[in-house]
Design a protein that fits this description.
The chain contains 6 helices and 44 strands. α5 packs antiparallel against α6. The N and C termini lie far apart (115 Å). By secondary structure, the protein is α/β, with parallel strands linked by helices. The protein folds into 5 domains: 70 residues, no CATH class; 66 residues, no CATH class; 105 residues, no CATH class; 171 residues; 67 residues.
Length: 573
């Protein structure tokens, strides 16, 4: 552009002395027009100045001052030359490099050589984009952000694998079922055993991975591919002399999996559990030849057999539990399989036993048996008993909480004319059967069948959580309302924290309501559920089947209770 300034309607343009700024000149004139932004840009195109970086705000200001000017001559900068820019950013993982380009406006353009020099300066050498693609990006007349270099991710290897070749006790011992359908809870089957020379485990060697590289060409080692050896714990096992990747049993005993291996344990036998022996914790089966004394604990990864009595102690195992004596005090038996107590169980004192009712009352502490399998005891007093399958009581049950997913049976049909279930709560999903139900001494007896007691307890728990959640939400809303009226009492940090907590509570409420809906939809009513009194029912006994409640108004003889057409039916058999 020549140094001569062409004025038209009192408006002209020129470059600054250093050629870096675009200036507009305004002079008073008689042929003044109404100037706007679009007309100014057309004048710039005509003057071959539109390729510069034009700042719209300054162009707007020029039009405003021109239109309101009468006598003043002035200059105003409305644009400038701007060179193109190029920047390379690298991801935190060093696996990607981005090229960020801005176009030039009348200034210097970025060339392929500039980009290549920038790559060299950044020390990027791996996975660089081909030159033709970089040049295509440089030709664009708008900002560009492209991945100019990308690393190669490593390929993970596979660690050495350890394949178990022998059945390990899964703690799923089941009672013996005879051909006629009767169940013998005394015959629980054999513990899984291995013998000397049995092949127990095969080691599969590792498969190595492949190395990767980041954009700097730095190597990245793959994960996995560790060639792990067998566990250093070689208790009860030996390496196969013909195959170093194979373990053999060195004795007859119980196989137990350990990390990267397997061991074979013989059964631990102790005379008794008392202060002299200390608490017992054993990763196999335990046999106690005598008693388990007050306050002691016995834990086993497999089965536990106790020949004597258990007094106010804690017994826990992942297999089955057999106690040949009795259990007294606030003892707690927690078993993954089945429980047999031949001598019966007796808690210290009578308890308020209504934890499984639908009013949401929670389970009390104290004496309890919790088994994922079945529970069989000689008698039960003042105990909380939960079974994942059945509860069978040979003689009588008094003032207990009893809950089973299948059935609860108490008393023999040919036993004396004494109550077999009296007091407390007895809840099974399919069947409750007893010789005589209730008591003539006024002890309240509650019996329920037809619904899953465990699901009901979950429903009650979630409902209580929803109630507590709503209370917390109401408390926060009251605080927010107060602060809304008394703004001086609040601050942004406190309000943000309150809103965050409120949102969290609302999300938790929605999750709980969804869980509650699922639980309620799964609480199917058992149509063929029933309660059987082999000899009779005492006055005051409450029997609930599904949602139908019946209360004995007088003593009855032998009875079978069912629900038909939403009404309680009572038959002799």
């Amino acid at each position: 552009m020549s140094n001569e300034i062409k004025m038209e309607n009192g408006l002209g343009f020129k470059l600054s002395k250093d050629d870096s700024k675009l200036l507009a000149i305004v002079m008073p004139t008689e042929d003044k027009i109404n100037l706007d932004v679009s007309l100014i840009k057309k004048r710039l195109e005509a003057a071959q100045l539109a390729n510069l970086f034009i700042e719209d705000a300054l162009v707007f200001e020029l039009a405003h001052r021109y239109n309101h000017n009468q006598t003043e001559t002035f200059e105003i900068q409305i644009g400038r030359r701007r060179d193109a820019t190029a920047e390379i950013t690298i991801s935190g993982s060093k696996m990607k490099a981005h090229l960020i380009l801005t176009p030039n406006f009348g200034g210097k353009a970025i060339t392929l050589e500039d980009v290549q020099n920038l790559l060299v300066a950044k020390k990027i050498v791996w996975g660089i984009l081909p030159s033709e693609k970089i040049e295509a990006a440089l030709m664009k007349n708008h900002p560009v952000d492209i991945i100019i270099a990308e690393g190669l991710n490593p390929v993970a290897g596979i660690d050495a694998q350890f394949k178990n070749l022998m059945p390990v006790d899964t703690h799923e011992h089941k009672p013996l079922i005879h051909a006629d359908g009767s169940v013998d809870y005394r015959e629980l089957g054999d513990i899984v055993m291995v013998h000397k020379g049995d092949v127990l485990m095969q080691r599969i060697p590792a498969i190595p991975g492949e190395r990767g590289f980041n954009v700097f060409g730095e190597g990245i080692n793959p994960t996995g591919g560790a060639d792990k050896p067998f566990s250093a714990d070689k208790k009860g096992i030996v390496l196969n002399p013909d195959d170093e990747n194979q373990l053999l049993s060195a004795l007859t005993g119980q196989p137990v999996l350990v990390p990267n291996g397997i061991v074979v344990l013989s059964v631990l036998t102790v005379k008794k559990v008392d202060f002299a022996s200390g608490n017992i914790r054993f990763d196999g089966s335990v046999v106690v030849l005598g008693d388990v004394d007050d306050g002691m604990q016995v834990y086993a990864l497999e089965d536990i057999t106790i020949d004597g009595n258990v007094t106010n102690a804690q017994i826990e195992c992942m297999g089955n539990l057999l106690i040949k004596g009795g259990v007294t005090g606030n003892s707690q038996l927690m078993v993954n399989g089945d429980v047999i107590v031949k001598g019966g169980v007796q808690g210290f004192q009578e308890r308020t036993l209504d934890f499984v009712k639908e009013d949401g009352t929670t389970q009390p502490g104290g004496a309890k048996i919790i088994a994922h399998g079945s529970v069989m005891v000689g008698f039960a007093e003042n105990f909380n008993i939960e079974a994942g399958v059945d509860i069978v009581i040979e003689k009588y049950a008094m003032n207990n909480n009893m809950m089973a997913e299948n059935k609860i049976v108490a008393g023999a049909k040919n036993s004396a004319k004494k109550p077999s279930i009296m007091g407390g709560v007895t809840w099974a999903m399919m069947l409750v059967k007893g010789t005589i139900l209730g008591s003539n001494s006024g002890i309240k007896t509650y019996i329920q069948v037809g619904t899953n007691p465990y699901l009901q307890r979950q429903v009650v728990t979630i409902r209580n959580e929803i109630i507590e959640n709503k209370k917390k939400q109401d408390d926060i809303l009251k605080i927010l309302d107060f602060v809304g009226i008394h703004l001086e009492k609040g601050n942004p940090e406190m309000l943000e924290k309150l809103h965050h907590t409120l949102n969290k509570l609302m999300i938790e409420e929605n999750v709980n309501r969804a869980s509650l809906k699922d639980l309620v939809s799964n609480m199917a009513i058992i149509e063929d559920a029933k309660v059987i009194a082999e000899r009779g029912v005492y006055t005051g006994t409450e029997i609930k089947i599904n949602k139908v409640l019946w209360i004995a108004q007088e003593n009855r003889g032998k009875s079978v209770f069912r629900v038909e057409n939403s009404e309680m039916t009572i038959n002799l058999r």
